[in-house]
Amino acid sequence: MRTVFIHGEIEQYHSAKEALIERFGARSGDKAAGEDGADDRVLLTVLLDDKLVRDGLIARWSARDLERFLTETAPRKLILDDWSAVPGLLHRWVDFLAETDLPTSGHCPVSELHAVVDRATPEYLESMANPVEWGSAKFWSETMAEHGVDTDDDSAVERFFAAVDSGAVEVDEELVEAVEAREQLEPLPQPAYWLPPVPDLGGEDTDVSGAQVVAWMRGLLDWVGRGRKLAATGEVAGSELDELAADLGVADDGFQVGMLLEWATRAHLVRNTGERLVRTRISGPLLERPGVLCKRLWESFLLLEDVFLEEFEELEQLAVGESVFLHLVQGTLHVLHSRVDPLPLELLVSLTAESLLNEEGQEAVEIGTGERAALRDVLRRILRQWESLGVVRTSVDDRGETAALIGSAVPQDTEPDHTVVELMPFGRECARHHLEALGFVVPTVDDMARHSAEVMVLAVQDCSPRTGERVISAWFEARGRQAACAELTALLRTVDDPLVRLGALSVLEHADSDGVHAVRQLCADTIAGPAVRMWLQERVADGEVAVQPGDAVMFALDSMSVAAEEDVEAFLSELRESATTDQIALLEQIARVPHSRASSVLEVIAGQHPDSRVASVARRSLEKVRGT
Prior knowledge:
Blueprint lengths: L9 H18 L12 H15 L8 H15 L7 H15 L10 H19 L7 H11 L7 H13 L6 H13 L7 E2 L17 H13 L3 E2 L8 H11 L7 H11 L3 E3 L3 E4 L3 H5 L2 H10 L5 H5 L14 H14 L5 E2 H13 L11 H21 L2 E5 L3 H10 L9 E5 L1 H13 L2 E2 L3 H5 L3 H8 L4 H15 L1 H14 L3 H11 L3 H9 L8 H9 L13 H16 L1 H8 L4 H11 L7 H11 L3 H16 L1
Parallel strand pairs: 1-8
Antiparallel strand pairs: 2-4, 3-4, 5-7, 6-7
């Protein structure tokens, strides 16, 4: 059973959750309610849904995970008559994980997990008794129940809230405000999303004391001096800005010096009093601490949206319901954070445009030439400021391979920009903190060495080849080669998931003969056997491993199911490269093998293959698979 969902795989998670709850119920005697009187299914659903949001590792529970659920999540969400049900269920959950063969359970001593449940129970009971610790949904549900409102009756609920708004029904307004204020500070309950692992900063130099922006801010504050009189409009006069531009040595292009002044204002280095521009009391201490100053400037950068987009109104229409500027910043950090090599600016523009315009599951939309040019100009401005801050480094790369990549990214009749960009050590630090604050999980190579085989196998598939090698090497080194191979083969035995299976076999290739020896033990395995026998065919002498009928189709289905989930159009395009007769023969064979994803692959082909003959055979095969 797969228990790791690090890329928001909702459908797969729900299937695993149901299976896990069923296994737990079977261990508990298949009771609808646990020994403590609460509905196990309800409690486990909240428990597992919360873990999906936290990190996506639903069978890996630390002491901190259990404590947080007991003292934070349960009081926020659960409405119970018997409050002891939650600690009781957690004790049984700990024992259940310890007794199963789930690949990510058992990493923390069972006695420690039981102890933390006991230690946290008094705080949990206090929170259950304190409405301030409840979530708003629970608060209003309890309040309506106290007023005799049937919460399943929509009309009754509407009448209740209308009465609250009119004052006919009194509620504790201070309590409501406290609950809502706390909720606003908590992240949205989105499934965890792990970014690709990146190398650790280690001893890399993140010193930015020599950053250009530090010199600019020092010059700007010197220019302000004891204060500058403002024009009648309450703004700095144009002639004054020209003087500042000359003092700082920046281009007088109508943007840079004004942006620096706004940046200093929003970072609280200077203040506009209405009549004068003055330095703040914190400006001096910040200048003495360039590292702190740069972090302050970085944190205030998102406040400059109006400054950067003032001349580009056409971009406001690109991101419906969200800030274009925020999207550009987050998207750029997301892309650059996962890169080892410099990224061409033109490719960054294309990736940003695609993420802005195209929602998952919707038909692809291309950006207009004018909008693309505006997007590129804004990204240039953003990167120019980041480079002054020591976040990125830009250079020009017009070499053949890079030039060809850049040329393929720009529309025809557009002069390509050969700028490439990469994150600097200070930038990687900033990016990581920013992305973590947004709810992403941002692992490093060292982090991955401590995780289970299932986590590593899924995470490493998103890495660049160079970083992937480092992740696998660190993971093997942390365990020793034989122990690592044993963990990977245990994963192959227990998780029937094509993505995990193909990933585990790929990682085992790095173990050379030890990997082959470990995999041999799985030749007769019900789950992994077909893929293992096919994998060994290329790595052992002829005749040492006997391939069985259907193995080739089963192994092909692993790759087909992964490809169909990643990109249906590309999957069908590759399938159509084979002759129609070969496609039909393959579909007929798929109906005769017991692969867990056969139906999902056939559904895609039956519903979206452009050749009616192939689609018809896929539908017949799908009926046979469903019938068995």
